[in-house]
Amino acid sequence: MAESSLKASLKLIAKVAIPILIAAGVAWWQFGSDFKNFDLSTLRWSSRLTEGLIMALVLLFFREAGMAWRFRKLSDKKLSGGDSVRVSLICDFTSAITPTSAGGSLLSMIFLHRRGLNIGQATAITILTLFLDMMFFVVTVPIIFLLISPSEILNFSAGKTDTNLAWVLMGIYLLVIFFSIILAVGIFYKPKAVGAFFLKIANYKLLRRFRGKAAELADGLNRTSYEIKQYSWRWWIAPSLATIITWVARMLLVNAIFFAFMPEANQPVIFGRQIIVTILLMFVPTPGGSGVGEMLFKTYYADMINGPVIAIMAIIWRLFTSYIFLLTGITVLPSFLKLYSSNQIKPNYREENNRDQLG
Fold first, then answer.
1. SS3 track for the chain
2. In a domain, 191, yes or no
3. Whether pLDDT at 45 is above 90
4. Rounded to 5 degrees, what angle do the CA atoms 129, 134, 137 make?
5. Where does the pLDDT of residue 10 fall: very low under 50, low under 70, confident under 90, or very high at 90 and above?
6. Contact 311, 27 (CB under 8 A)
7. Which domain holds residue 102?
8. Virtual CA dihedral for 115, 195, 174, 148, nearest 10 degrees?
9. Domain annotation covers residue 316
10. How far apart are CA 172 and CA 247, in angstroms?
11. Interatomic CA distance for residues 117 and 75, integer angstroms
12. How many of the other CB atoms lie within 10 Å of CB of 200?
C-alpha cells in the first residue's frame, strides 16, 4: 500500500513538473533577451499596478465562483458548496497538466459520483459542462468579430495580419461548431444515433484505439439525454449564466494585467484577442498549453507592449491562468485520491446510486 502510494505521489510530481519545465524553457527562449535587458529599477510600484493586480485576483475569484456555481446548479444542489469548489479546482488542475480538458472532465465525473451523485447524473454534468463551454465560444466569436475589426483582432507583430493564423483559427472554430452540433443532437434529440455514429467512426483502422472512449461517449449521451428530460428551459438559465461569468472573468484577466502595466492599450481589442488565444490553446499538444501560451502572448500582444516588460506580463498572465492551479490542485487532489481509493459514497445518495447501477 505504501509503495503504491509512493508511486502515485511520484507520478503526480512528474505530471506537475512537466508543464513547469516546458514553460520555464520556452519562457527563457522567448523572453531571455527581454529579461537581460530589463532594468527592474524602471518598474515602479504604483497605485495603478496594485489596482490591476487586485482586479486580476478578483476576476480569478469570479472565475472559480462561476465554475463552482455551475457544478452546484447542474447537480440540482446535491453537491455542497465546498464540493463544488473542489470539483472546479480539480478540473483546473488536471487541465493544467494534460494537453486537453479531457482529464479534468474524467476526474470531475469520478469525484461527482463519490460525492453522492448517481452515475447518470455525474456523466450528464460532465457532458453538459463541455457543451456549455463550447456554446460560449460558438456564440461569442462572431459577436467579437462584429464589434471589433478582424484586422485589429488578427493584427500583431509589426501590424501584419497572419493569414496562416486566421486559417488555423477558422479551422478550430468550425471544429468547435461541428462538435457542438453533434453534442446538441445527441443530448436533445437522437442520443442513440449519435452514439452509434461515434462507434462507427471508431471502427476505422486508424481510430480503433479510441473505441473505448467512443463507447463511453455513447453511453454518456444516453444518460445525459435521459437526465435532462425532466428539466424545462428555465433550468438552463443559471448554468448558462455561470458559464458566461466563468469565461468572461477568465478573458478579462489579461485586461487587468494590461491595466496594471499598459493602461493606454485598447482594452476591447485585448479582450477580443484573448478569446482567440484561448481557442487556439484548446488543441495544443503540451500540458495545459505550456510553452505555447507564452509564445502566443508574445506574438499576439507584441504590437501593444513597449519594451521588455512583455516578459513580466506574460508570466503574470500564465500565473493567473495556469500555474496557480498547479499549486491549488496539489492541495485538493490528495483528499480526492483518498476518497477515490476508499470507495466511499455519501450515504444520503447511496441507495440512489445502487438503483442506478442495477437499472
1. CHHHHHHHHHHHHHHHHHHHHHHHHHHHHHHHHHHHHCCHHHCCCCHHHHHHHHHHHHHHHHHHHHHHHHHHHHCCCCCCHHHHHHHHHHHHHHHHHCCCCHHHHHHHHHHHHHCCCCHHHHHHHHHHHHHHHHHHHHHHHHHHHHHCCHHHHCEECCCEECHHHHHHHHHHHHHHHHHHHHHHHHHHCCHHHHHHHHHHHHCCHHHHHHHHHHHHHHHHHHHHHHHHCCCCHHHHHHHHHHHHHHHHHHHHHHHHHHHHHCCCCCHHHHHHHHHHHHHHHHHCCCHHHCCHHHHHHHHHHHHHCCCCHHHHHHHHHHHHHHHHHHHHHHHHHHHHHHHHHHCCCCHHHHHHHHHHHHC
2. yes
3. no
4. 135
5. low
6. yes
7. 54-358
8. -40
9. yes
10. 18
11. 8
12. 10
Task: Using the Cα atoms of residue 207, residue 287, residue 244 and residue 137 in order, give the sign of their dihedral.
Answer: negative
Residue 259 contacts residue 55 (beta carbons within 8 Å): yes
**How many Å apart are CA 41 and CA 126, to the nearest integer?**
48
Report d(CA 38, CA 150) in Å as an integer: 33
Query: Rounded mean pLDDT of the chain?
Result: 78
If one counts every other C-beta atom within 10 angstroms of the C-beta of residue 93, the result is: 27
Total number of domains constituting the chain: 1
Q: Over the stretch 78-119, which tens digit does the pLDDT of each residue have?
A: 888 888 888 888 888 877 777 654 445 666 777 777 777 777
Q: Is residue 280 part of a domain?
A: yes
- 191 within 8 A of 217, measured Cβ to Cβ: no
pLDDT digits (tens, 9 = 90+) for 106-157: 667 777 777 777 777 788 888 889 899 999 999 999 999 999 988 888 765 5
Cα(95)–Cα(29) distance, rounded to whole angstroms? 24
Residues 6+ apart with CB under 8 A from 191: 221, 222, 224, 225
In a domain, 305, yes or no: yes
Average pLDDT over residues 305-322: 83
Give 100's contacts (C-beta < 8 A, 6+ positions apart).
Answer: 282, 283
Per-residue cell: 70: 455551475
C-alpha cell at 29: 527562449
Q: Are 128 and 187 in contact (CB under 8 A)?
A: yes
Residue whose C-alpha cell reads 510600484 in the numeric block: 45
